[in-house]
Amino acid sequence: MERRLLPGLYDGMRFGAFATKWEGWKNPHRRMACENTTGRINVTSSDDIARIDDLMGLYAVLYEPTKGSRYVACVGYSKHLATELKIRYGTWDSEARLSPRPSCFPFAAYYLPNQRDARAYEYDLIRYYSPPWNTKFHR
Known about the structure:
- The protein is built from 2 helices and 6 strands, in the order E-E-E-E-E-H-E-H.
- The chain has 139 residues and is α+β, with helices and mostly antiparallel strands.
- The strands form 2 sheets. It has a 4-stranded antiparallel β-sheet. It has a two-stranded antiparallel ribbon with strand order 1-2.
- The two termini are 21 Å apart.
């Protein structure tokens, strides 16, 4: 697992944050719920939010400092993925704190039919990737 300091990634207080390279939808605890997926959207551009269905599931916001090198910035759960991503990306468009353009932040989505399983899997992914924009497990 590759983890490195990315000077252009904003961690909430300053530029420069450690991030882990995206390895896909890992299943570190081999949860059966992860096999109950109702679909997935592989890494795609922030311009493709319209492709996302408003279903329950997980999303991963990635940071792409150079073409093809993706690092996990945030992992999240939502009952309505399309709405959540539109709100997040819409907020970033209007905020001056984001130095990289929103297009530097592709995302991936993973649909799960059960809220309990989705939240447990979100927790697993946050522990696995330790994304800088998630505050769970950070000291």
